[in-house]
Amino acid sequence: MRLLLFTGKGGVGKTTLAAATGTTLAEHGRRTLVVSTDPAHSLADSFGTELGREPTGVGPRLSAVQLDPRGLVDTAWQELRGQLRGALTGAGVDALDAEELTVLPGVDELLALSEVQRLAETGYWHVIVVDCGPTAETLRLLALPEAISGYLRRLYGWSRAPRTARGPGDAVSSIRRLGEHLESLRDLLTDRDTTTVRLVLTPERMVVAETRRTLTALALRGIRVDGLVANRLMPAPGFWRGGAANWLRKRRDEQDAVLAEMRDAGLTALRSVEHCAAEPVGTAALTEIARELYDGGDPLVGYSPGEAELLQISDGDDGGYRLRVALPLSTDPAIELARVDDDLAITVDGNRRLIALPELLRSCEVTGAEFDSEGLVVSLAQPGSVH
């Protein structure tokens, strides 16, 4: 089973490209489900048909569904909320307060992700294509499982390892069930053979800047990006006629310059789609989009930029070590480093991630950091060896 997540800045056309990708995957013989977790649903508009809370057939081997956050809150959330309420009351929080605290910001996104996992675990679908919300909402969605399980570890001593969390028996059971559920979501997102993200952008410098920040944020979370799609290019010069030709030529030249800058910066896993004269609605129009996007090929074949291992250790100066964190960085990133127990807290352009240090480095102190075209290089040394 493959899970493809499409996201990008609002208005770049990610829903259309997700629907087009699902359409061509089904045409290649795979049972495919296209799921919308975007609160501003437009997937039904792309397919030109009504969609409900359960998968609806929209073509041979192709189904689609628009997840209903409110419906999920009324059903699936009850079990998760019960687990969290049990954990809170076991920690001494008043029952009424515990009930109020379980109405969490972001619960809609967490439940949507849980529902995607449930659909994946049915084993029926070969590929699930997810039309996510805009970039900021997607990053929050993908960060939730790790963030909440991290709180459980610190507040209650919960661990995936077979040891007992702190608290009464019922609370321990609730903590463990909730923690295991969140860890399973995290595993699904970071399984690099199963889950990949495709970032959709329009060839404009402001949009590209946000895309680069998103690449960094996803790399920090260990989530694999397997391609970029530049959408809505001006048509090729052969179509230009009349007084608008000069404007079209200038606009296309600007777009081509942005794409060239992206490739020069190493963002080579880039495909492009020209702007359509008419809004693409229905599977026939989506098939045409997919033919241009994938050149008639299989969307799952040969579509990866190739990525370095996230952490690499080498010997540094004066007997210390150098830890390379492979991250795609913007031209002038704002980077902060801190130690949190055995973790290294890395914050890049406001996106924070705790990275577990390899055992070799846990007794070391951070002595410096720098960045280059391949990512961040952190210098570490044993205590007392720094002069």
Query: Given the structure, what is the number of helices?
Result: 11
Instruction: List the uncertain runs.
Output: none
Which strand order spans the largest sheet, edge to edge or round the barrel?
3-4-2-5-1-6-7-8
End-to-end separation in angstroms reads 53 Å
The oligomeric status of these chains comes to single chain
Description:
This is ArsA family ATPase. Residues 1-295 form the ArsA/GET3 Anion-transporting ATPase-like domain. The chain has 11 helices and 15 strands. By secondary structure, the chain is of the alpha/beta class. The protein has 2 domains: 2-294, Rossmann fold, CATH 3.40.50; 311-381, Sandwich (Immunoglobulin-like). It has an 8-stranded mixed β-sheet with strand order 3-4-2-5-1-6-7-8, with helices on both faces. Strands 9-10-15-14 form a 4-stranded antiparallel β-sheet, with no helix packed on it. The longest helix is centred in the middle third of the chain and has 22 residues, at 135-156. It is flat, with a radius of gyration of 23 Å. The N and C termini lie far apart (53 Å). The model has no long low-confidence stretch (mean pLDDT 81).
Keywords summarizing the entry:
Immunoglobulin-like; 8-stranded mixed β-sheet; 2 domains; alpha/beta; Rossmann fold; ArsA family ATPase
Short description:
It holds the Pfam family ArsA_ATPase. This protein is of the alpha/beta class and 387 residues long. 40% of the residues lie in helices and 24% in strands.
Task: List the SSEs and their pairings.
Elements: E1 2-8, H1 14-27, E2 32-36, H2 43-47, E3 56-59, E4 62-66, H3 69-74, H4 76-90, H5 95-101, H6 107-121, E5 127-131, H7 135-156, H8 169-190, E6 195-201, H9 205-220, E7 225-233, H10 245-264, E8 270-274, H11 283-294, E9 311-315, E10 321-326, E11 335-340, E12 343-348, E13 351-356, E14 365-372, E15 375-381
Helix pairs in contact: 1-11, 4-5, 4-8, 7-8
